Predict the structure.
Amino acid sequence: MNIHEIASKLSLDVKTTKGDLEREVTGCYISDLLSDVMANGKEGDIWITHQTHPNIVAVAILKNLSGVIITNKRVPEEDTLKRAEAEHLTIMTGQAPTFEIAGMLYHFLRC
Amino acid sequence: MIIKNSIEGSFHLTGGDFTNAGIASSELKSILTELGLDDNVIRRAAIATFEAEMNVIIHAIAGTIYYSIMPEHIKIIVNDMGPGIEDIELAMQEGYSTAPDWVREMGWGAGMGLPNMKKNSDEFKIDSVVGEGTTVEIIINIKQGLR
Ligand SMILES: Nc1ncnc2c1ncn2[C@@H]1O[C@H](COP(=O)(O)OP(=O)(O)OP(=O)(O)O)[C@@H](O)[C@H]1O
Ligand SMILES: [Mg+2]
């Protein structure tokens, strides 16, 4: 399943324009600790987090993650979006709490 | 890919500069990618360098990343001017962190950076003088099958 399909199925707002929406999402990692994502996130994972600052872009790019979903109505900082555009990373936001977004994602990626 | 001569360079880091965090590691990652090195080698070098870069930004005043890419291995030395580390053994333990609250709110300060560096290195050395600074040396073997 690619980023575009996930965004539409989970009613996510795509906040960036330059990311590759066709990029395949191969898994998911959920954490608000950046070194934890550095250690345990896998290439192709979509990352669900509450963090909104620009360092999430650096982590996602270095780990070659497929995208970032910021949950719980949180809004990415403007600098975060600028960095994401420059790096062609897709950042999305979701109104639903992490549990629900993760639950739906689990269903689509594993079932 | 066979590297004949060593390729060297450096990046300057400023403590507290969270805005530019990751730029040095990303550049090094691009250089390694252009050289066509093994994905696993690149991945490990990027993780270890980024954690070292973040530690300078979080804990120190200023620092430098030096890299040299040699036929057999990549050597990354990150040297900083800063508070230094009193008890290195303690600092190496997963979960130990002295990061202030505002840094923890950003999701740093899990105490995972040094263990991550060690895990991703083939050789890892850390030296520190309290009140002066810290140096970490990361070596990652290029030849496959060594890990
Ligand atoms: N360059 C440095 N200068 C001074 N102290 C350091 C430096 N690097 C690490 N330390 C000390 O070692 C501790 C552990 O470092 P480590 O990278 O494992 O965790 P952290 O940086 O606190 O959190 P995380 O890496 O998970 O964001 C730090 O909290 C700090 O006290
Ligand atoms: Mg750290």
In short: Residues A 35; B 51, 54-55, 113 surround magnesium ion (ligand 2) (CB under 6 Å).
